[in-house]
Amino acid sequence: MRLVILGAGESGIGTAILGKKKGYDVFVSDFGKIKGNYKEVLIINEIAWEEEKHTKDLILNADVVMKSPGIPDKSPIVKKLLAKGIPVLSEIEFAAPFTDATIIGITGSNGKTTTTMLTYHLLKSAGLNVGLGGNIGKSFAWQVADNKYDSYVLELSSFQLDGILKFKPHIAIITNISPDHLDRYDYKYENYIASKFRITMNQTEEDYLIYDANDEAITEWFKTHTTKAKLIPFSLTKTFSEGAYIKNNKMEISINQEEFTMDTEHIALEGKHNMKNAMAATSVAKLMQIRKSTIRESLSNFQGVEHRLEKVLKIQNVQYINDSKATNVNASFFALDSMNTPTVWIVGGVDKGNDYNELMSLVREKVKAIICLGVDNKKIIDAFGNVVDMMVEVDNMNDAVRMAQRLTEKGDTVLLSPACASFDLFENYEDRGNQFKQAVKNL
Q1: Please, which residues have CB within 8 angstroms of residue 234's CB and are 6 or more apart in sequence?
Q2: 84 is in an annotated binding site
Q3: Closest alpha carbon to 42 in 12, 81, 78
Q4: Helix 329-337, helix 272-287: angle, nearest 10
Q5: Residue 232 in contact with residue 225, Cβ under 8 Å?
Q6: What domains does the chain contain, in order, with CATH numbers?
Q7: Which of 53, 417, 420, 435 could be a cystine partner for 349, CB 3.0 to 4.6 Å?
Q8: What integer pLDDT is reported at residue 179 of this predicted model?
Q9: Is 112 annotated as a binding residue?
Q10: Was 226 annotated as part of a binding site?
Q11: Is the pLDDT of residue 183 over 90?
């Protein structure tokens, strides 16, 4: 069996290792340059590879192809493979049959990383033998090749779900759905929503789907579709006999005739959106039979995720917050919503078809100045130019942070929450967040 892998990033290299171990004839092809450390792994494992090209004759003879989530279906080589009827899978689809571990799959436009990390923290703190993978950390396929975990917590992007056929998690979570990556879905929101719901398409009556019962896109989907999975909703406003909700500042969860309650003030994560993430993760912990005392302790000591509403420093009584992971409007909505002081907002980058209107009331209420940090800031200026007193354009992080310091008074907050991708000025959102943190430390 010939396994061809397109893209030699974390998921590609992991799949190559697993494929080789399972007796496939493996070939790795990357249209860009392969990083040195990954190249070494390929050479040590005697796996054939090429870089800066896709040689058709070496690819179109595949029995099965795993493509990196970053490569769109519209790319010429993928089109040729699909035209020949060669299956093109995601890493998740390829690796899942080689493990009998319990899989918890988490997707959503926002909150999925926090929910994934918190779920992993809850299970690991309880002493479970659990792996963390998917869109985060070490490749799932690589872990399946090298480790013997009893459970996996996987963060799944819509691109990874697009490449599944039979994959099914025992427990699935959809944190929420809001417009994102529409450039990859022909600018049709319904295509993106359908992509997220692929997480439950193979689930059976034995499986569970945990979801936000207040989310408009999710609620609409349920009006015309069904899943066989047992439904566990969570909500900030509704109550359920089976599900999770917040009532009188208490998180209450009822699953399989078992109750769990905890005062929200003892939960380490702050903000309404994080209460939702906590309800989703705790629902998994309940399904996995984790003791109540362990759940309470884990929820109260969880550190949060880097680059997601991360408090950096307080300088002259001004709080600097790094929310570089907010790469879409909905994520910035949650960030602005959680601000309790006058805010200088650093925003901008590569726009993925953003509609800034939904932020208008929050900007009016909370934002005193906007610093545009992007190559093209026209949409942001058009949207908010008349709404805030001060609007400044900069093209590097040091200028953004110095300007923010000038515009603040005691008691204010400086929030980096870009609502955009980072590729115009930075390598990725981590690089953007790290540059922000360094610039703040240099003040």
Answers
A1: 210, 211, 212, 213, 243, 244, 245, 276, 279, 280, 283
A2: no
A3: 12
A4: 110
A5: no
A6: 2-89 (3.40.50.720), 95-301 (3.40.1190.10), 310-441 (3.90.190.20)
A7: 420
A8: 81
A9: yes
A10: no
A11: no
Q: From the CA atom positions of the chain, what is the Rg in Å?
A: 22
The distance of Cα 126 from the centroid of its chain, to the nearest Å, equals: 24
C-alpha distances in Å from residue 89, one per residue of 67, 202, 214, 332: 6, 16, 32, 32
Q: Is 441 annotated as a binding residue?
A: no
111 is in an annotated binding site: yes
For residue 124, the one-letter residue type is K
**What per-residue confidence (pLDDT) applies to 270?**
83
- For the cut 90, the answer to whether the pLDDT of residue 232 exceeds it is yes
Question: Is the Cα torsion angle 141, 143, 146, 147 positive or negative in sign?
Answer: negative
pLDDT tier at 322 (50, 70, 90 boundaries)?
A: very high
* Residue 293 is assigned to a ligand binding site: no
**Mean pLDDT over all residues of the chain?**
94
Residue 148 annotated as part of some ligand binding site = no
Section 438-442 average pLDDT: 96
- Average pLDDT estimate for 306-334: 93
pLDDT surpassing 90 at residue 352: no
b/e map of 416-440 (b: 16 or more CB within 10 Å)?
Answer: bbbbbbbeebbeebeebbbbbbebb
- Residue 27 bridge partners (DSSP): 4, 48
What global pTM score does this model have?
0.82
Query: Over 80: is that where the pLDDT of 166 sits?
Result: yes
Edge-to-edge, what's the strand order for the sheet holding 243-247? Answer: 130-134, 151-155, 102-107, 171-174, 208-212, 230-235, 243-247, 250-255, 258-263
| CA angle (420 as vertex; 368, 234 as ends), nearest 5 | 90
- DSSP 8-class letter at 374: S
Nearest to 73 by CA among 61, 81, 84: 81
The SS3 of residue 205 is coil
